[in-house]
Amino acid sequence: MSESPAEIIAGGVTLIVAAGFLFYTTQIAGSIGTQGNGYPLTASFRSIEGVGVGTDVRLAGVKVGTVTDVSLNPETFRADMTVNVQDTITLPEDSSISISSEGLLGGNFVELVPGGSPFNLNAGDEIEDTQGALSLLALLAKFVSSSDSN
Hints:
eight-stranded mixed sheet; 2 helices; 33% strand; extended
């Protein structure tokens, strides 16, 4: 069994690429599972279209947490969301939370906007000021129907 140098190099490159994929996968899994180093906050939305578990939570464009749970409340018919925010971030109790889009072709993310209250949110508190996802198709339909009436 004589291996040529080309076969040995190809095998080595294959192992390096496989190790790179393994490293990348563990980094992604680590960024999604950041539940241990933060505190949970809840919010209730009319629509959370395009948002699921693992979606980024951002403050001033910087990722400060992730969405950890999404469920439908059968009593209010609203979408309940739990987000995990880094321990180093303290939010005033009158902060707001909204679903934002990265652009026409980008995905959605959850945006936190701090308020001005001197009192802060604690683990498990609910953010009451929410704004759900805007449907691009619904906005386009409104635009078309309003331009037809002119």
